[in-house]
Write a structure and sequence with these properties.
Arc Repressor Mutant, subunit A; 16 strands; Nucleotidyltransferase, domain 5; 379 residues; 20% strand; 14 helices; 43% helix; alpha/beta; five-stranded mixed β-sheet
C-alpha cells in the first residue's frame, strides 16, 4: 500500500497519530502518547500499521526531551508527497513546489496578461508543469484575493473581474491533479498555523497589508472560517477620523490608511509626482516631512488595528505580513504607540512579529491548503 492509499484509508485514532507526527514530529513514542493521552500499548497498536505502510518512519536514535533516555522518534517522510501552491493576482501568478511539511523546493512565476479564465488556466498549467518536472504532484492549491466558499468555484475575485468561475474544475481537466481554491489570506494563515508562527500555539492572528488589508484567525487550534471570508470586511474597519477616503467613501478606514495604492496615491499628490511604495518609505526615512507624516499616520493606524485584534480575539501571537510589511518594520515605534493608545495598560503586551510578504510566502500558503485537503479529507 502506498502512502497515498494510507492517508486515504487511515482514520480515527491512527489518523490523529499520523497528523500529530506530521505537525510536531519527529516525536518519541513517549511524547506522542503523552500528547494524545494514549497508553503505550494503544500507541504501539496504532503505529504498527503506519510504520508497516511507510506513512511513518523511525528516525535516528536521540535523547528524549522529556526523559533524557535514548529514544527512536517517529516521523513522516517529507519527500513522500509534493504539492503545488499558486498565488494568483490580476497581474502575476507565482508557484511553488512544497513537500509534505510545506518546505519550498522550487519556484516559478509568470505574468497574467489576460484575465479570461481559459487564458489564466493555461498560465497556471504551464507553471504547474515547470515546478513539477520529474515529480508527480499530489495536489494543487490556488490562493487568490477573492471569495471561494466551496473551495472550487471563485464566487468573486475583484482583481481578476471574475464571478462564478469554476477554477478547480478547469485546472483539474488540464492537469489531472486534484485542485482546491482558497482565499489567499486564509491560505497564508493556514500555513502559519501548521508550519509557521502558529505551530504549537492555540491561537494566532494574521494581519496582511498590501494591495488590500486581510485578517486571519486561529482559535483553539482551529482556523476560523466563515461564509463571508474573502469579502474584505477588515478593510472597512475605521482607524482615523481624519484620514483619507477609500473608494467606498469611508474616511480613515483600514483600506484608506494602510494599503499600498492609497499610500502611494497620497504621497504622489503631496509631492506632485508619481511615487513608488519603496520610494515613499525611503523618503520618510530620509526626513521628507510629507512622506514621514504619511508613514507615521499609517503605522499608528496599523497599531490601532492590531490593538483591536488583540482586544477582541486575544491571540497568543499576531503575525503582520504582506507586500506592505516594511511599513511595520521601519516604523515600529509608531505601531507600538498606536497599540498603546487603544490597550488597557493592565493588559499583557501583544506578541507581534513580522514575516516576509513576498509571493513565495503567499504561494506556500496555497500549497499548505493542498496539503490539508490531502491529509484531512478522510476525516
Amino acid at each position: 500500500m502506498s502512502t497515498t492509499d494510507t492517508w486515504g484509508a487511515t482514520g480515527g485514532s491512527a489518523h490523529e497519530v499520523a497528523l500529530e507526527v506530521l505537525l510536531h514530529g519527529p516525536l518519541s513514542r513517549a511524547e506522542l502518547a503523552r500528547r494524545l493521552g494514549l497508553s503505550q500499548a494503544s500507541l504501539s497498536r496504532l503505529t504498527k500499521p503506519l510504520l508497516t505502510s511507510g506513512l511513518l518512519i523511525e528516525s535516528p536514535t536521540r535523547a528524549d526531551p522529556a526523559t533524557g533516555r535514548p529514544a527512536q522518534p517517529l516521523d513522516v517522510v517529507q519527500s513522500s508527497h509534493h504539492f503545488v501552491g499558486v498565488k494568483l493576482t490580476g497581474e502575476v501568478a507565482a508557484a511553488v513546489l512544497v513537500d509534505l511539511r510545506g518546505t519550498v523546493r522550487r519556484t516559478a512565476q509568470a505574468p497574467v496578461t489576460d484575465p479570461a479564465p481559459d487564458r489564466v488556466v493555461a498560465v497556471l498549467a504551464d507553471l504547474v508543469a515547470s515546478v513539477t518536472v520529474g515529480v508527480r504532484p499530489t495536489g494543487i492549491g490556488i490562493g487568490l484575493g477573492g471569495h471561494a466558499p466551496d473551495h472550487r468555484t471563485v464566487a468573486v475575485a475583484p482583481f481578476l473581474d471574475w464571478s462564478g468561475v469554476p477554477l478547480a474544475d478547469l485546472l483539474e481537466r488540464t492537469t489531472g491533479v486534484p485542485t482546491t481554491v482558497e482565499n489567499d489570506v486564509v491560505a497564508l494563515t493556514a500555513a502559519e498555523h501548521w508550519f509557521g508562527e502558529g505551530r504549537g500555539r492555540r491561537s494566532l492572528a494574521v494581519v496582511t497589508i498590501g494591495a488590500g488589508v486581510g485578517y486571519g484567525l486561529v482559535q483553539h487550534d482551529q482556523l476560523v472560517v466563515h461564509r463571508d471570508v474573502g469579502i474584505g470586511l477588515v478593510g472597512h474597519y475605521p482607524l482615523s477620523a481624519h484620514g483619507a477616503v477609500c473608494v467606498e467613501g469611508h474616511r480613515g478606514c483600514a483600506t484608506a490608511m494602510l494599503t499600498i495604492p492609497s499610500l502611494i496615491g497620497q504621497a504622489s499628490v503631496a509631492l506632485g509626482r508619481p511615487v513608488t511604495y519603496d520610494e515613499l518609505l525611503d523618503l520618510a526615512r530620509a526626513g521628507d516631512r510629507a512622506c514621514a507624516r504619511l508613514v507615521d499616520d499609517a503605522a499608528r493606524a496599523l497599531g490601532r488595528l492590531l490593538a483591536a485584534v488583540g482586544n477582541l480575539t486575544m491571540p497568543d501571537r499576531i503575525v503582520v505580513t504582506g507586500e506592505g510589511v516594511a511599513l511595520a518594520e521601519m516604523a515600529r515605534a509608531a505601531v507600538d504607540a498606536g497599540i498603546a493608545g487603544d490597550r488597557d495598560p493592565r493588559a499583557s503586551a501583544l506578541d507581534v512579529v513580522t514575516r516576509p510578504g513576498d509571493f513565495r510566502q503567499w504561494a506556500r500558503g496555497a500549497g499548505v491548503v493542498a496539503i490539508q485537503e490531502f491529509v484531512l479529507r478522510t476525516r
